[in-house]
C-alpha cells in the first residue's frame, strides 16, 4: 500500500431539510456571498427561493446559467464579481459543473491573470475563498473533493485542475433534491460515479485490499439503486444511497494507498471538448470498449475479481468471467437508457485522430493501468462508433 494523505474536513450535512443549516454554515466566513447555480432546475423545484429566503440577512450576488460542461466564460464572470464586490464566500447550488465553476471562481479571486491559467497550471492556484455547496445531483463528488474540470470552447479544451483548498468547507446533501432529475441525468450521473470508481479500482497497485473492497461495495450500490431511482424517482432510499455513493467515490477514500493515471476520463474529456456531450454518457460508451481493449493475461485477474465480487459471477475460468463482467457492465448502462455508441449521439470518425492526439498531449497515459498511446486511444474510440 502506498503512502497517502487523507484529510476529510468537509462538514457534510446529509438528509432531509438540511438546507435549513445554510445560514449557520455560511456565517463564519462573512456576509457577502456569491451564489453560483446552473439552469432553471433550482427555480422550478423551489430551491432557489428557499436559499434566498434563508440568506435574507446576507448580501447575495449571483452567477446563474453555469453550463453542464462548465465554461471558462462563466468562471470569468464570477471572478469579476468576487473581486469587484469583495466576496467573502462562494456558495454553489447545483451539481458538479456548478461546483467546479465555483471552485475556479474562488481561486480566481486571488489571481491577477486569466483564471484559465489556473486550469492549465494548477501550481498557480494560491489562496482560495471558502466554498460551500448545496448538492442537487449525484455524479461528480465535487462536494467533497479538490478537483475541478473546466471547458474552453475557443480552444476545444476540457481540462482538470485541482487544489487542496478547492475542497468545500461544507456541503449540504439532501437526497430529496434529486427527485425531479430527468431519468437521463440520473443514469448519466450513475455512470460518472461508477467511472470514478473504475479509475481507482483498476490500478497497478495490488496491495490496497481495503480500498478495493470499498470500491466494490460502492459499485454494487450503484448497480442496485440506479434502476430503482429510474423507476421510482421519489424513492428516498435509492436517492440517498446514490448521493452518498457519489460523495464517497471521489473524496480520496478509494485512492488511499493506490495511485496512477486515469484512462476513460481523459478520453471522454476530449469528446466533451469537441462535441459538448453529457460527460456520463461519454464515459458509459467508452468504458466497456476500454475494458475489452486492455483485457490480457495480466489484467484478466483483476477483471475476473471484478466479475466475481461485483456482479456475483460464478464462472471459474478467468477470461470467461472477465468477459461476462464487461458484458454486464455494458448491458447495465444500456438498460439505464444510455446511448451506447458515439454514432447515436452524433459523433463520427472525423475527429477521432485529433481527439486521440489531444488525450496524449494533456494526460499521462503512460502511467495508467495499462499504458496507451495515440493509436490505442484511436482504436478504442473507433470501437465506440
Question: What would you say this structure looks like, in words?
Answer:
With 385 residues, the protein is α/β, with parallel strands linked by helices. Helix content is 48%, strand content 11%. It contains 15 helices and 8 strands. The strands form 2 sheets. The protein has a 6-stranded parallel beta sheet with strand order 1-8-5-4-2-3. A two-stranded antiparallel ribbon has the order 6-7. Strand 6 and strand 7 (157-162) form a beta hairpin. The longest helix is centred in the middle third of the chain and has 23 residues, at 209-231. It is globular. The two termini are 38 Å apart.
Tally of helical runs: 15
Q: What structural category do the secondary elements indicate?
A: alpha/beta
Order of helices and strands: EHEHHEHEHHEEEEHHHHHHHHH
**Which consecutive residue ranges, at least 5 long each, have pLDDT under 50?**
none
Approximate strand percentage:
5-15%
Strand line-up of the largest beta sheet? 1-8-5-4-2-3
- Report the biggest beta sheet as strand number plus sense, adding barrel if it closes: 6 strands, parallel
How large is the radius of gyration?
A: 20 Å
Amino acid at each position: 500500500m502506498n503512502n497517502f494523505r487523507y484529510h476529510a474536513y468537509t462538514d457534510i450535512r446529509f438528509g432531509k431539510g438540511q438546507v435549513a443549516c445554510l445560514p449557520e454554515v455560511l456565517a463564519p466566513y462573512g456576509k457577502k456571498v456569491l451564489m453560483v447555480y446552473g439552469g432553471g432546475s433550482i427555480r422550478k423545484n423551489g430551491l432557489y427561493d428557499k436559499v434566498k429566503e434563508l440568506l435574507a440577512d446576507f448580501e447575495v450576488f449571483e452567477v446563474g446559467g453555469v453550463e453542464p460542461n462548465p465554461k471558462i466564460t462563466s468562471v470569468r464572470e464570477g471572478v469579476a464579481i468576487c473581486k469587484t464586490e469583495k466576496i467573502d464566500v462562494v456558495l454553489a447550488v447545483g451539481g458538479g459543473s456548478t461546483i467546479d465553476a465555483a471552485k475556479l471562481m474562488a481561486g480566481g479571486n486571488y489571481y491577477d491573470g486569466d483564471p484559465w491559467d489556473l486550469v492549465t497550471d494548477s501550481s498557480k492556484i494560491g489562496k482560495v475563498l471558502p466554498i460551500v455547496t448545496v448538492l442537487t445531483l449525484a455524479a461528480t463528488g465535487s462536494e467533497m473533493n479538490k478537483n475541478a474540470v473546466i471547458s474552453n470552447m475557443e480552444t476545444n479544451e476540457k481540462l482538470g485542475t485541482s487544489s487542496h483548498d478547492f475542497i468545500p468547507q461544507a456541503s449540504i446533501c439532501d437526497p430529496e433534491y434529486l427527485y425531479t432529475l430527468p431519468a437521463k441525468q440520473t443514469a448519466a450521473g450513475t455512470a460518472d460515479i461508477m467511472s470514478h470508481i473504475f479509475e481507482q479500482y483498476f490500478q497497478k497497485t495490488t496491495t490496497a485490499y481495503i480500498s478495493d473492497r470499498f470500491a466494490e461495495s460502492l459499485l454494487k450500490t450503484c448497480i442496485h439503486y440506479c434502476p430503482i431511482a429510474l423507476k421510482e424517482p421519489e424513492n428516498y432510499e435509492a436517492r440517498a444511497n446514490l448521493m452518498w455513493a457519489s460523495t464517497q467515490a471521489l473524496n480520496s477514500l478509494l485512492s488511499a494507498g493506490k495511485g496512477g493515471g486515469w484512462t476513460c476520463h481523459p478520453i471522454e474529456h476530449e469528446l466533451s471538448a469537441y462535441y459538448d456531450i453529457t460527460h456520463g454518457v461519454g464515459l458509459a460508451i467508452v468504458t466497456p470498449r476500454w475494458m475489452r481493449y486492455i483485457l490480457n493475461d495480466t489484467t484478466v485477474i483483476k477483471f475476473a475479481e471484478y466479475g466475481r465480487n461485483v456482479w456475483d459471477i460464478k464462472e471459474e475460468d478467468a477470461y470467461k468471467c472477465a468477459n461476462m463482467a464487461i458484458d454486464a457492465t455494458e448491458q447495465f448502462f444500456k438498460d439505464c437508457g444510455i446511448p451506447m455508441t458515439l454514432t447515436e449521439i452524433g459523433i463520427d470518425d472525423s475527429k477521432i485522430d485529433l481527439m486521440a492526439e489531444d488525450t496524449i498531449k494533456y494526460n499521462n497515459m503512460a502511467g495508467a493501468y495499462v499504458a496507451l498511446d495515440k493509436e490505442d486511444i484511436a482504436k478504442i474510440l473507433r470501437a465506440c462508433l
